[in-house]
Amino acid sequence: MDIIVCVKRVPDLAEADIVIDRSQRDIEKDDLVFDINEWDNYALEEAVLLKEKLGGTVTTITLGDEDAEEVLRRALAVGADNAVHLDDAAFAGGDAYATAKALAAAIREMPYDLVLAGAQAGDDGYGQVGATLAELLGIPHATLVTSLEVDGKIARVRRELEAGLEEVMELGLPAVLTIQTGINEPRYVSIAGIRRVARREIDVRKASDLGLSAAEVGAAGSKTEIEKLSLPPAAQKGDILEGSTAVVAEKLAAIFASKGWLG
After folding, report:
1. Would you state the pLDDT for residue 263?
2. Could you tell me the pTM of the whole model?
3. Most buried residue among 100, 175, 210, 251 by CB atoms closer than 10 A?
4. Which helix (H) or strand (E) holds 158?
């Protein structure tokens, strides 16, 4: 089985102070720590588990500048066999559609039975690249996959729906699946493991190598545009009620009464 995994290098924003840059269309990233997108990490692990069970190859692909190579090295250390880096200034600033178009052009040139991607990216949270990629490739897809089994040319998946519901479905291969966190336990990658693949060849491709013009990808080829970013308003500071249980209860009742909640 030939599996392609789309991965992305994203900033870790969990405990970072977010600062909007001068353009007001992006954030300041100079002091941020970057890593593989969390959802993509689960997709990568799922691909390697399938390879270990069924045989075949795993190829990872990313779109980004030269720094994005580090997530491909990580993928190789985890167990991927090949890595493809779409590195071209023409790809910069692309939305989900433009990104998917570049990925699709590269993937069409590769053998594949399954394409995996994270359910969303930690930096924008759009969750659109996987479904758009499937449409461009003309193959079926399923999103938010929490369980995956492959039997010949059939993929059986369980996927999240709204309100805590789940759906079980079968898809004919090839197909695109976007993977939700929690589907597996991604393995730890040591520094030594990354050093072992430091000299592995990475296939670097530009837009022209994929038969794409600069007008078709990146900001020029995007269907949407960010006009302005803004931080959410600061939340009102909460009040901490102190004292004995009886005192706190009395204060709480007074607050409820003042807001007319005791009817």
Report:
1. 66
2. 0.86
3. 100
4. strand 154-160
3-state secondary structure 80-95: CCEEEEECCHHHCCCC
Which residues have a Cβ under 8 Å from the Cβ of 94 and sit 6 or more positions away? Answer: 63, 102, 217, 218, 219, 221, 222
User: Cα–Cα distance between 249 and 263 in angstroms, integer?
Assistant: 17
Both tokens assigned to 52 = 């270990």
Q: Name residues whose C-beta falls within 8 Å of residue 177's C-beta, 6 or more positions apart in sequence.
A: 43, 114, 115, 116, 117, 130, 141, 142, 143, 145, 148, 155, 157, 171
Q: Using an 8 Å Cβ cutoff, are 11 and 33 in contact?
A: yes
Domains detected in the chain: 2-216 (3.40.50.620)
All residues at 6 or more sequence positions from 165 whose CB lies less than 8 Å from its CB, including other chains: none
pLDDT digits (tens, 9 = 90+) for 70-116: 999 999 999 999 999 999 999 999 999 999 999 999 999 999 999 99
CA 75 – CA 197 distance, rounded (Å): 10
